[in-house]
Amino acid sequence: MDSGEIEKSKILITVEIIEYVPNSVVIKTILKKSTGNISVMSFDSGEGLTEKTSPFDTFAQIIEGDAEIVINGTSNKLKTGQSIVIPAHALNYIKPNGRFKMISTIIKSGYE
């Protein structure tokens, strides 16, 4: 598939879309559009995302394991099935607590 997206009109088990890779963060695109994207991510133990900001709101949903998502200096500990909205322009980073997988949904519309 040239777009890098997963196959459409097919039933998926979200947590099985992506596997763990030793010492890595792996990102697989589910949908990518000009108005936003949805990705599934796997994080090996000790791997996370560095501190950053985004001009868009991001919905982060843990689908396996648990992690700490720090937003503007406030720690949020999430476990499987929990989610949080990271506001646009908020300084944030993700720290693992062992291996975990998450879905990241970014909505770009409404930010002209």
Task: Break the fold down into its secondary structure elements and pairings.
Elements: E1 25-33, E2 36-43, E3 49-52, E4 57-71, E5 74-79, E6 83-86, E7 92-107
Antiparallel strand pairs: 1-2, 2-7, 3-7, 4-5, 4-6, 4-7
Task: List the defining traits of the structure above.
112 residues, mainly beta, Jelly Rolls, seven-stranded antiparallel sheet, 0% helix, globular
Question: Oligomeric status of the shown chains?
Answer: single chain
Please trace the helix and strand order, writing H or E for each element: EEEEEEE
- CATH topology: the name is Jelly Rolls
Task: Tell me the Rg in angstroms.
Answer: 14 Å
Distance between the termini: 31 Å
The whole-number mean of residue pLDDT values reads 91
Supply the helix-strand structural class.
mainly beta
The coarse overall form would be globular
Determine the CATH superfamily: Jelly Rolls
